[in-house]
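Human: I would love a firmer grasp of how sequence relates to backbone shape in proteins. Could you go through the record with me and say what the backbone is doing? Here is the record:
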Amino acid sequence: MKDLKLQQSLLVVSQRHNIMSTQPIFLLSLPRAGSTLLQRLLNQHGEISTTPEPWIALPLFYMLKSEGVKSIYGHNNLANAVNGFIDTLPNKKDDYLASAADFLNKMYSLNSKADSTYFLDKTPRYHLIINELMDSFPDAKFIFLWRNPLAIAASIIQTWGQGGWNLYMFQVDLYSGVNSLVSSFSNNKERCIAVKYEDLVTSPDEEMARIMSYLNLKYDVNLVDTFKHAKKIDAPGRGDPTGQHKYNEVSKNSRDSWK
């Protein structure tokens, strides 16, 4: 019943604005799990558009949370006010989630190629709002990317600590992030696909064919071979500042480099 009401709210809002939208793909992982590699591979398909990490969904859903945000205006007061406003809507939170999804779909569509079926949003910190994403986008595609946690820790140390111990700065990812990702995937397996980074770099053709099947897209057998020509996806302060510049091909050498 809840999913039906949310679907109805989404339909009403979309009809109101007459929006032709692409379908979102959310690539969910911890930082340094190889998500930029997978994003670049997916970006080669003509029906998938993407940009560097948008982060755009975080403030929309953190408006509902009383903790976790520092602001000059007092975020706790804002959260109380927003939730109070939502309580006056006909379908309460379902209306808010539907409207948030409508806004995001419009932003994704505006940032997509004309012939795109999907827009890929790859923002690792979305593990903080993963339940809201699941509730707001009942028809979206969700790709969960897993990697050996020791490899993730080593990459964080090398990339952002220049070899010095800095894992205390990433507690939200290495502790609550892991729990959120595992819990959400376990509760929504029928809607999602799981990809292991180690499998992706060892057998890229097989893994990409499996992902394309999940997305109902035709797989180009030359996709992996042409990866060296793939456009780099980078922006200051976002994305992968090292890996995509170090490797111009899908290499299994990165699988065990943490050792």
Observations:
- Residues 139 and 177 are 23 Å apart (CA to CA).
